[in-house]
Amino acid sequence: MAESERLRDRQTAGVLLLPVRDAGEGFAQRATAFFRDLNFSIMNDADLAVSAYCLKRCSGLRTLCFSVPDVFKEETAESSTPHLRTRSLSGAALSRQDVKLLCEALRATCSLEELPVARCCLSVDGCRDFSRILQTSRKLKQLNVSYSCLDKGMPVLCEALCHPDCALEVLELVYCSLSERCWEKLYEVLLCNRSLTHLDLTSNVLRFEELQLLCKALKQPGCPLQSLWLGYCKLTSACCQDLASILTSSKTLRILNLGGNPLDLSGVVVLCEA
């Protein structure tokens, strides 16, 4: 859909959401039938009730964004929008109950393929809930948990990513304060997972030993990764020989993003020669 069409949908939605509930069922169905992308700004319970009422009638909805926390109520069950593919919750302060309700919907009839939950301050329990989804959902393909401190939660997610039924293809972990044990778990994921093609580790401090561990996994014949983002990971030119070995050994890697790292000319030359 063109950007102008997306903007039209969202602007029209903002005008219609308030009156449609009181205008009758027929009007609500007609008014919301053409919506494909919606962005709800919910400030109170009344906004939530109106949005939930309209959401249930947006039969063609594909993308849904919420701009405030505490939006998960039973009235907004994803099962009523079977065509929904993306639900953005980035920036929402998800409570334990919010995550629980979301995951219950994902385990039911929900068809979400992309779930951005960046800046949501996920707890270990929240990561545990998402890990169950990763082990059971064959539809969820993209998960963005960036800007969350995952020192304790990441090992839980990695166990799920190693599960043979995990179908996730894109994992974004920007600025997640990954610790040494997190990198060890990611190494196991790269060895075991057969669906993951894009991994974004931007703005996580990556020490030399941890980089060597990742490179070792990427050089394995069965590793399916096609895109690896390591921007602003404080990598130096001393790392370039190992990075170059990935470029010459990996049969699948097509994109290696190293932007924002203090590489000098000698390191760049090593990479270019590879």
From TrEMBL:
Gene Ontology CC, one term: cytoplasm
SUPFAM superfamilies: RNI-like
SMART domains referenced in this protein's UniProt entry, alphabetically: LRR_RI (SM00368)
One Pfam short name: LRR_6
Taxonomic path: Eukaryota, Metazoa, Chordata, Craniata, Vertebrata
The organism's place on the tree of life at top rank: Eukaryota
Originating species: Camelus dromedarius
The protein's name in its UniProt record: NACHT protein
Any single biological process term in GO: regulation of inflammatory response
Signal peptide: none
Record InterPro entries: Leu-rich_rpt, LRR_dom_sf, NLRP_innate_immun_reg
Annotated PANTHER family: NACHT, LRR AND PYD DOMAINS-CONTAINING PROTEIN 12, NACHT, LRR AND PYD DOMAINS-CONTAINING PROTEIN 14
